[in-house]
Design goal:
This protein is an alpha+beta fold. Helices cover 26% and strands 31% of the residues.
Length: 501
């Protein structure tokens, strides 16, 4: 389940000096694989981009609000239309319409909203609820904070937007508002800031808050130098919001020929260039998965793709043994982008919103792909912060099958290490380790088709002793692997973060 919403009511007040956000805003997964069913995350945007209506089931928890149905429907429909209208407007303001002919055709059709009579007919459940219910559904107690509204994405269920009653919202916001705050400002905050932000989530966009950029930014987009935006500070629509809509539609429907080789952000002061929805950042390489065992290296010059190479991940490798390197090329920020390994391996780096990709190759084969990311998470009330580190290594096991080792952890709360050979749905070997803040193992899980039963069974030859020897050997190998995984995870632990926000 993912919850995207308005954390801390003060963040929608125009006078708020700082913005807070929660760490669940990141949208993950391939949009193309998450847009075919009504319960999928990108289904609503996919329908809208094809000119089909967004079907909304509107429900009020308080019978007194039934008389306001027309008002709520008008606001919801207007905000959906505004998202496409604003995106088209930013294209027009940039005087670059010739780059976006097919995109503009989609956007200018607008988003149509159809209100339906039952949840079974809907793409989105829009629930207008009293204040305590919104807090409960948006997990305010767990967050130890006030939540203005949220969108919940739960696997197998329709996306649900939990929205407060207008009167409740005005009453609660008045408690935090400065002197001179009026009912008119509360109305503006609800309908012109909070609702557009939440509708943006239903279209597949994620939070772009400054302090949580690594955790909350969608990997598809974010203008690196922008300071405002509906998905960022909720004050107004921005070119950054337009970048997000364009990139998600590109991924869902395909990039038009005029921008296939890359296009510059609609934000004039941004250095970002997007290629098929992916931000290039400053390096000459972009690394993308083609299939579980194939990785592609895209090479760019002058913001245009000049070469693409695909490597098969099939050379057995020990993920716990580091591959040292000699750096051969760096980017404008001094980061390595190409290096040579101690045994002649060719190593490439790519960077994307705090994520670092390291592809190690030899000839036409990939030895491993390493992905690391460092980010921050807010603690209670968003006032204390902790660092999070992720490290994932994709490699080939000794039998050539795809394998992976991962670590995700916080300095103050411990972490989790994971080892997998084979597929997640049918693992050959799967090891999971939970650590406390002192890096002590507090939970261990070992399973998979290669793990023999505890009690050996006689085979046709009755060689019970042989089976026992094999089982002891296998258990020793697994325990050795658990030990290596524990040691490796300890090396990945993030450093403490003492910054206050």
């Amino acid at each position: 389940m993912k919850i995207l919403g308005l954390l801390l009511l003060s963040s929608i007040l125009l006078w708020a000096p700082a913005l807070q956000a929660a760490p669940w805003g990141a949208l993950v997964g391939d949009p193309q694989e998450n847009a075919s069913q009504p319960t999928d995350r990108y289904f609503i945007l996919s329908r809208a981009a094809d000119g089909q209506p967004v079907r909304v089931y509107l429900r009020f928890s308080n019978p007194e609000d039934f008389s306001k149905q027309a008002h709520y429907k008008k606001q919801i429909a207007s905000v959906y239309r505004t998202w496409f209208k604003q995106t088209a407007s930013f294209i027009g303001k940039s005087k670059r319409k010739t780059e976006f002919p097919r995109m503009l055709a989609r956007l200018n059709r607008g988003i149509k909203v159809q209100f339906v009579a039952s949840p079974q007919e809907a793409d989105l459940l829009f629930l207008v609820e009293d204040w305590p219910t919104v807090q409960k559904e948006c997990l305010a107690a767990e967050l130890k904070s006030t939540v203005g509204a949220c969108v919940r994405f739960t696997e197998g269920k329709l996306p649900t937007l939990h929205f407060p009653r207008e009167e409740d919202f005005a009453e609660e916001i008045a408690k935090q508002a400065p002197q001179g705050w009026t009912a008119q400002l509360s109305h503006k905050a609800l309908w012109e800031h909070s609702l557009p932000h939440e509708i943006g989530h239903t279209l597949g966009l994620s939070d772009q808050y400054d302090q949580m950029v690594n955790m909350n930014s969608h990997q598809i987009y974010r203008s690196t130098h922008l300071k405002n935006g509906m998905m960022r500070d909720m004050r107004a629509f921005s070119c950054d919001d337009a970048d997000g809509i364009i990139n998600l539609i590109d991924i869902l429907k395909g990039t038009e020929i005029s921008r296939k080789q890359g296009w510059h952000s609609l934000c004039e002061d941004s250095p970002d260039v997007y290629v098929d929805g992916i931000a290039m950042e400053t390096g000459p390489y972009v690394i993308t998965p083609e299939e579980p065992s194939f990785w592609s290296l895209h090479t760019y010059q002058a913001n245009r793709e000049v070469a693409e190479y695909t490597f098969k991940l099939d050379i057995p490798s020990n993920p716990f043994t580091p591959i040292t390197e000699q750096i051969e090329q760096t980017d404008a920020l001094g980061r390595p982008v190409r290096a040579r390994g101690e045994h002649g391996e060719q190593i490439y780096y790519a960077y994307n919103y705090g994520k670092v990709f390291r592809l190690i190759t030899k000839a036409e084969h990939a030895i491993r792909l390493e992905l690391s990311e460092d980010s921050e998470v807010a603690g209670s009330m968003g006032m204390s912060w902790d660092s999070i580190h992720q490290k994932h290594i994709f490699f080939a096991a000794q039998d050539g099958s795809l394998a992976r080792v991962s670590y995700v952890g916080q300095f103050a709360r411990g972490g989790y290490a994971y080892y997998l050979e084979g597929q997640i749905t049918d693992p050959k070997l799967e090891i999971g380790l939970d650590f406390d803040s002192g890096h002590r193992v507090i939970n261990q899980s070992i399973k998979g088709s290669s793990v023999t039963a505890a009690a050996p069974v006689l085979n046709q030859k009755g060689s019970r002793l042989e089976q026992q020897v094999q089982q002891v050997t296998q258990n020793q190998q697994i325990q050795a692997l658990v030990k290596r995984l524990t040691q490796w995870a300890g090396q990945q632990r993030p450093s403490p973060l003492h910054a206050s926000r």
